Amino acid sequence: MVSVANISDEAGKAMADVMGKSLRWAILKPVESDIVLVSTGPRDSDIASVAAALSDEPCYVIYDFEATRSDGSGLCKTCFVTYAPDSCTSMQAKFALQNYKGSVKARVNSAKEI
Predict the structure, then answer these.
(1) pLDDT per position in the chain (114 positions), as tens?
(2) Are 35 and 105 in contact (CB under 8 A)?
């Protein structure tokens, strides 16, 4: 059964800031029926800083990916990542992550889901 999650104001603002290009990434996690903000990264941070901020708990990562193509043109895509590491043994946490994914994804205009 898929449920609707309550996205905290702080988490909603962080998602909007990533899509609005003022933050590079945001990490969110489900806590009971709420989606809360765990951490964010400034615009000049890279993917290594996201990896350093991840823990053993399942979470959602919204990342604004930027790259330069071989022809010199720019590429900018917002990615939505559902992260559930093998080291997490709590099936309840993994089920909550999948259960509330639709609520979070509906608020993110992402080009890629991982």
Answers:
(1) 567 888 999 999 999 999 999 999 999 999 988 999 999 999 999 999 999 999 999 999 999 999 899 998 998 899 999 999 988 888 999 999 999 998 899 888 887 888
(2) no
Q: Is beta strand 74-83 parallel, antiparallel or unpaired with respect to 112-113?
A: parallel
Contact 38, 65 (CB under 8 A): no
Q: What is the CATH number of the domain that holds 51?
A: 3.40.20.10
Q: How many domains would you assign to the chain?
A: 1
Q: Is residue 1 part of a domain?
A: no
pTM of the full structure: 0.90
Look at residue 82 and tell me if it is in a domain. Answer: yes
Residues spanned by the domain of 101 = 6-113
